[in-house]
Specification:
This protein has 429 residues and is of the alpha+beta class. It has 16 helices and 18 strands. The strands form four sheets. Strands 3-7-8-13-12-11-9-10 form an eight-stranded mixed sheet. The two termini are 54 Å apart. Bound molecules: adenosine-5'-triphosphate and magnesium ion.
Length: 429
Amino acid sequence: MSEKIRGVKGTRDVLPIDTYLKDKDPWVRVGHLQLIERTARELFPLYGYREARTPILERTDLFVRGIGQETDIVGKEMYTFDDKGESLTLRPENTASIVRAYLEHNVNQQEPETKWWYLAPMFRRERQQRGRYRQFTQIGVEALGNPGPRIDAEQIELLDRWLRKLGIAFEMHLNTLGDQNCRPNYREALQKYLRSRIDELCADCKKRVETNPIRVLDCKNPGCAEVAAQAPKMEQFLCDACRAHFAGVQETLQRLGVATVIDPRLVRGLDYYTRTAYEAIVPSGLGSQSTVAGGGRYDGLVKELGGPDVPGIGFAAGVERMALLLAQQGKEETVRPVVFFASLGPAEEARADRLAQQLRAAGIAAEVSFRKSNPGNLLKRADALGARFALVLGEQELQTGRAKLKELKTGAQHEVALDDLVRAVKELP
Ligand code: ATP
Ligand code: MG
């Protein structure tokens, strides 16, 4: 016998069966992902977002410029390979790809404002942990062409509504990062402060103080966190325009009834991220992978990628992390058969095939028994499938044209005419 081939480290199979537990956690199944996806599909268009699909493969340079050389993603996590002289990368996130497509198809010349959403697998070579994988899925939105602040709040409200609809308990953290006018002053003050406490920082942050001091603020190391807690805050350095923008976002959110937590440590490390930054953080259930979605304004990105001066704002949510939370709540989307046909002979099987076809055509889920067995075992099978009704078809039922729909939970029986089965099932309470 030849050896089994196993899946790649950091990737996962999501299966529909529910027979196994992993790490004492309920395992994520396809139905959890479907619930998250369907809710997004229904909700996002109500806010004007339309779905865009871009390729998994992009030129490496897109991410080097669109995410930044000094980030962990580009520095250590990308799956990059040489394709006969051209460097390609499996996308680690989608904002850069969306902006590339937007520019490549001159969308900015066709419409002043664009709202797109996506659902797509992402690839990052990270250390595998619960809620952290090498292939994972993001659902995200991007709004291009609107400088805000009302759209910022509208987008945060969308994320808020989506997570609430799914029953996820979270806090919406909010911050402002300033812009190219005021952030340099803040950066300088922060750098000065961090240099004065450099001995207390982790090795990575010691470097960040010189290359990208703002990123020290979101380091997860406890020593760095303590230093960050006492650091000067962006708030004190905001220019008038950024201050007004932030006030506008908060005012609109208040009007829309969205509660937020102002979080001065919430940052994005790159220069083209400006002003609004936000994250949905869950207080429990995900350990240290507690951020389910992160978003922010990127007014400098389109220009960085060779386009005109078009502002943008977007968020990306981690579908697997959300699914872990739904699995803990026992919530998922499943379609169970409404009717299970237990047929006792070949003529009955033939009738069941056609009746099941009629039910499905009417939008009612139905299953037929494919194995020969006795009525007791067939009813067990119906139960295992989670069917609502079992319909036993024997010689007598075929002759009289009448059968009993047995409600599996209660044992209640409803007599129905086989010729009129669709209507009968629809009329049952
Ligand atoms: P983290 O700080 O947890 O690494 P991040 O800042 O790298 O997150 P983003 O790039 O902002 O995350 O991505 C948005 C969301 O995508 C995250 O909030 C998270 O839910 C999800 N996500 C990011 N990386 C992973 C991963 N390796 N596995 C699963 N989900 C991920
Ligand atoms: Mg990360």
